[in-house]
Amino acid sequence: MTPADDVAGPDDLPFRTEVEVALLLVSPRHRYEGRPADGALPALPTEPDERRDRIELRAGLGIVGDRYFAARAHVHASVTVIGMEGLEAVGTAIGATVNPAATRRNVFLRGADVEALRGEPFSLESVTPGGSEGPVRFRGYRPANPCAWMDHEVAPGAFRAMRGRGGVRCDPESDGVLTLGPAVLRTARPVPLG
Q1: Does the N terminus or the C terminus of the chain have fewer Cβ atoms within 10 A?
Q2: What percent of the residues of the chain are helix, what percent strand, and what percent coil, each to the nearest 5?
Q3: How far apart are the C-alpha atoms of 28 and 15, rounded to whole Å?
Q4: Neighbour-count burial of 134, counting CB atoms closer than 10 A to its CB (0-12 exposed, 13-18 middle, 19+ buried)
Q5: Adjacent-strand bridge partners of 121
Q6: Is residue 99 within 8 Å of residue 154, measured between CB atoms?
């Protein structure tokens, strides 16, 4: 296990923002394959619920149990973090309620501009009544650009409306655990509120 403090010093992420981990999604297999008009693949009866209360992350590998865990084709993109406020703005723009899980992202945050994390180091630390399991260090890389599936699975117009709001593809740089609920986002530079 690689603690976040071993990856970088405690002073390199001085800006603290209180956020909420609103949803965690772990998908063991791809559900959006083929043509969007054919619809998503159904969940198998033997598959666990993709929505989780807790996820375990491994440095350089991703989320344990997710389809992108240790996938070489997804280097620097094993975890996708997205802002709930951005999804709400998408819903307003298209005049529909957006089901966040339909976007197939992994970590849904409320309270910070997630798009500002592109190219930046950051950490997330879940705050639980029993304390904390410690921060999970990430590196934000490229935007999580939407695909044509968004028009079919989210709502018509979502593909275009999600541009610039689709989240950020990341790699965990330390092992750790995230849970639903209050969390602390630490960044090298101030991050605007969501």
Answers
A1: N
A2: 20, 30, 50
A3: 34
A4: middle
A5: 139
A6: yes
The maximal CA–CA distance of the chain, rounded, in angstroms, is: 50
Model pLDDT for residues 33-65, shown as the tens digit of each residue: 666 666 665 666 666 788 999 999 999 999 999
pTM recorded for the entire structure: 0.87
Contact 59, 2 (CB under 8 A): yes
Which is nearest to 86 in space by CA: 62, 116, 127, 63?
Answer: 116
Polymer length in residues for the chain: 194
- pLDDT digit string (tens) for 66-113? 989 998 878 889 999 999 999 999 999 999 999 998 888 999 999 999
pLDDT of residue 144: 92
Average pLDDT over residues 154-176: 93
Closest CA to 168 of 111, 122, 102, 99: 122
